[in-house]
Amino acid sequence: MKRSQSLLFLLLFPITMLAQQNATADELFQKAYTTAFEKKDYAASISLAKEALEKAPDYTDISIFLGRLYTWNKDISAARTVFENLQSRGVKDEDYFIAYASLEYWNDQNTNAIKMIDEGLINHPSSEALWLLKAKVYFGMNEYSEAEKAITNLLVINPKNTEARALAVRINEFSSKNEVGITYNYSHFDKQFGDDWHIVGVSYKRMTSLGSIILRGNYANKFAQNGTQIELEAYPRLSKTFYLYVGAGYSEDVGIFPKYRTGVSLNANLPHSFEAEIGYRQLYFTNNIWLYTASVGKYYKNFWFNLRTYITPDNKNISHSYTGTVRYYTKSSHDYFAFQIGKGISPEENRSNLLENETFKLKTFKVGAEYNFAVYRNFFSVGTMYYNQEYLPNVKGNQFDVTLGYTRKF
Fold first, then answer.
1. Which of residues 169, 201, 218 is at a domain's end?
2. Of 198, 233, 317, 366, which is the most exposed, with the fewest CB atoms less than 10 Å away?
3. What Cα–Cα distance (Å) separates residue 215 from each residue in 181, 201, 247, 409?
């Protein structure tokens, strides 16, 4: 049996070799492509691409692919040689500029990457891939104003570019050194409380090399009583993927605000335009209340979807709060409509003082909408929220909120 197999191999081997020799450049190119992406065998794919180029030395697409293969195989000098040869031939293909600029970007040669991208954009001004890469390079260089220009140009070309939309939101956080803001929240209750609530917040945000820092002061009139609170928040960056939220607050007016509040979350910007968060919030009125939070978000074209939960354990049971949010972006990362629906009370809401008693364990339903828009460096928001809460067993009341906000960046 083994002799038969050996004989068959000897008979077929010359035929196989002849077929390989007679394969066209396109066939070898296709085989190299399959070998690289399905088998992840870059060395074998490089050999096939080089063989294809021997048959068709001026086949630009194969040369570009060979340069990419060398890049993926971490043979940087060989990749540069291929791209420099294409440059000397005066190649103007869009994929050539993308591949060459990507090589430089991935190897921290950002100046060379921008040079190649700009040359590519002269020849392909509507290239979404080149504009996106330009925004990424400038963002990695901490050149946030240039990154913002690049991503804005891309979103003009295609507002539904999912990756661009996610990156635009991240760039927005760094696009200015300073930011001042003011918000006003009005709450009306039909049964639960006899007096309306008024809350005003004033904030200052400063961007640093480590991330943003926010100082906020809040004034509230609740239960016909006045109270103030001071808060400090920071968003230190750990890497390109991870950053933290760290927050703390203090108030002498317990009941209107918690005496102390703290919070820490780990946030991640994940592949495929996903993002996630996990952390805790702590409120202290007369006793500590610990809440654990997790959320997952996803950008898709003009949309951002987010689902967040707060879990509050105690000795008897575990209380849950869930909120779903959908944003629809119209232009930039500052211009969007938002819709929100959920159940339960979260510590980020202006009604977080209701967590001090047992009412938050009863049924609460909420639904609301928000509109944000920008005029140059002025940013405006208007929102409304409706709550239906079981504030006593089998007794429900309604709450209506209106929130206005203004922010100035400089």
1. 169
2. 317
3. 11, 10, 10, 15
- Give the residue, 150 or 390, on which the prediction is more confident: 150
Indicate which CATH number applies to the domain containing 101: 1.25.40.10
Check residue 158 and report its DSSP letter.
-
CATH number of the domain to which 337 belongs: 2.40.160.40
Q: Which residues contact 364 (CB under 8 A, 6 or more apart)?
A: 343, 344, 345, 387, 388, 389, 390
Closest CA to 66 of 47, 49, 42, 88: 49
Predicted TM-score (pTM) of this structure: 0.84
Q: Which residues pair with 202 in a beta bridge?
A: 182, 217
299 and 213: one domain? yes
Q: Domains in the chain: how many in total? A: 2
Q: What is the pLDDT of residues 179-207, one digit of tens each?
A: 999 999 999 999 999 999 999 999 999 99
Q: pLDDT tens, 313-367?
A: 876 778 889 999 999 999 888 899 999 999 988 888 888 888 877 666 678 999 9
Q: Which residue has the tokens 């609301």?
A: 368
Which of 133, 151, 169 delimits the end of a domain?
169
- Determine the structural domain holding residue 335 and report its residue range: 178-409
Burial letters 100-137, b for 16+ CB under 10 A, else e: bbbbbbeeebbebbbebbebbbeebeebbbbbbbbbbb
One domain for residues 129 and 217: no
Whether residue 157 is found in the same domain as residue 247? no
Average pLDDT over residues 108-129: 97
What lies within 8 Å, CB to CB, of 126 at 6+ separation is: 157
269 and 151 both lie in a single domain: no
Rounded to whole angstroms, the Cα distance separating 230 from 340 reads: 27
pLDDT given for residue 319 in this prediction = 83
